[in-house]
Amino acid sequence: MSTRGKFITFEGCDGCGKSTQLRLLSEYLTKEKIPHIFTREPGGGKISEAIREILLSGKNMEMTDECEALLYAASRVQHLSDRVEPSLAKGELVICDRYVDSSLAYQAYARGLGKEFIEKINAFALENYLPDVTIFIDLTPEAAFRRKKGADANDRLEQAGMEFHKRVYAGYKALAEEYPSRIVCVNGEQTPDGIFADVIKALKERGCL
Ligand code: TYD
């Protein structure tokens, strides 16, 4: 039987450069022949991707904050069962673009639903599937938005505005302070290669590579 794989998540404000880092990591893991999967939240499977469409559609602006939080949690539980658990059980490295820290930063802190409520509805994830390492790309929303010109104007979340994203960022900083052994802060102001060097170093130090 193979040893269980490691679970790595990537977090950060919208436009922080996560996608570039995930692409670089994908190239690295393929080159090194390390068995892995890439996945994302919300989404990553048939049902979770359908939930993602509801969540991110610009047509659903009247969605309540509680409904939004529950849909993220619903998408998460399905995704864990469809993709994350089977790969971890096979000994593969699982790299997930966003996870429960996004719910804590966006829904608990930024939407103001509170940590207690978000932790309660995500208890299955927090108790059974806490990531081995979470890479937080530390870039302020002001810097992120400067980079992300031409964003999709129909994206419901991006219409939420700068004040919301500043609260998201503050939420991430609070989480990083609270969970320093799991969450690694990587300076997002560097060049993509500089950020990537820090990502690889952190993953090696924590025994994921
Ligand atoms: P996406 O287009 O994938 O953004 P990004 O490339 O920045 O990851 O959209 C995901 C959005 O969903 C993003 O704005 C963060 C939000 N989100 C939450 O609010 N709560 C959550 O639990 C998750 C997983 C994502």
How is the topology of this model organized?
Layout: E1 7-11, H1 18-31, E2 36-40, H2 46-56, H3 65-89, E3 93-97, H4 100-110, H5 115-121, H6 123-128, E4 133-138, H7 141-147, H8 162-178, E5 183-187, H9 192-205
Parallel strand pairs: 1-3, 1-4, 2-3, 4-5
Helix pairs in contact: 1-9, 2-3, 4-5, 4-8
Tell me what the structure shows.
The protein is an alpha/beta fold and 209 residues long. It contains nine helices and five strands, in the order βαβααβαααβααβα. It has helices at 18-31, 46-56, 65-89, 100-110, 115-121, 123-128, 141-147, 162-178, 192-205, and strands spanning 7-11, 36-40, 93-97, 133-138, 183-187. Strands 2-3-1-4-5 form a five-stranded parallel sheet, with helices on both faces. Helix 1 (18-31) packs across helix 9 (192-205), helix 2 (46-56) runs antiparallel to helix 3 (65-89) and helix 4 (100-110) packs antiparallel against helix 5 (115-121). The protein starts with 6 loop residues before the first strand and ends with a helix. The model has no long low-confidence stretch (mean pLDDT 94). The structure holds thymidine-5'-diphosphate. Thymidine-5'-diphosphate (TYD) is lined by residues 14, 18-19, 41-42, 56, 72, 97-98, 102-103, 106-107, 157.
